[in-house]
Write a structure and sequence with these properties.
mainly alpha, 196 residues, 0% strand
């Protein structure tokens, strides 16, 4: 029933996303704009890193291409360096090297903080830094980061990040033996499910 529809919907979204990403790479390369090329190659590397060992190997090759473009056209550009680091963080994440991923995501967060117009990138970095921290079992560090990121999301009135953090990391309340707060947090969450 509903679970199969959800799984099929997720699968379809991933396939559609990969299709659009492949088109983005082609269009970026046709444009010749170094930033578009770098960004599209980094995103393609992230998609590939999720697939398999062969995909992760291809992701590393794509990141090398993005880095080569950056070195040739934007050698001292903080934006290009930040995007390259983002790709490296995700490759480490999908290789299961969570400690390394956390370090690189932390570096990415600092790099992207100096740039404008990158809210999506920062949100993605923070959510995945938290997930990598969780996968290491570093719950003390996870709690502190969760609190920091939740305060920032509330300050910015970012409901997407607030709802994502509440749902993905609600288990933190259970770790503190506070199931009452886990339930209350979910009840307060401002996210609503899409209509069927």
């Amino acid at each position: 029933g509903r679970r199969l529809r959800v799984v099929a919907g997720v699968r379809d979204a991933v396939v559609r996303g990969a299709d659009f990403q492949a088109r983005a790479v082609r269009l970026a390369m046709q444009s010749g704009d170094p930033r578009r090329c770098i960004r599209s190659l980094v995103f393609e590397a992230i998609y590939r890193a999720q697939e398999s060992d062969a995909g992760r190997t291809r992701a590393i090759e794509l990141l090398r291409s993005a880095n080569w473009i950056a070195q040739q056209t934007l050698p001292d550009d903080p934006w290009a360096r930040a995007y390259f680091a983002l790709g490296e963080a995700f490759v480490a994440y999908y290789y299961g090297k969570f400690r390394r991923a956390v370090e690189i995501f932390k570096d990415c967060d600092q790099r992207f903080r100096t740039l404008s117009g990158v809210a999506w990138e920062q949100n993605t970095i923070r959510i995945h830094r938290l997930r990598a921290t969780d996968y290491q079992g570093a719950w003390g560090e996870l709690r502190a980061l969760y609190d920091e990121y939740m305060r920032d999301a509330q300050r910015r009135d970012d409901r997407y990040v607030g709802a994502s953090l509440t749902r993905w990391f609600n288990v933190l309340w259970l770790a503190h033996d506070r199931p009452d707060l886990a339930g209350a947090d979910l009840d307060r969450s401002q996210w609503t499910a899409p209509a069927e």
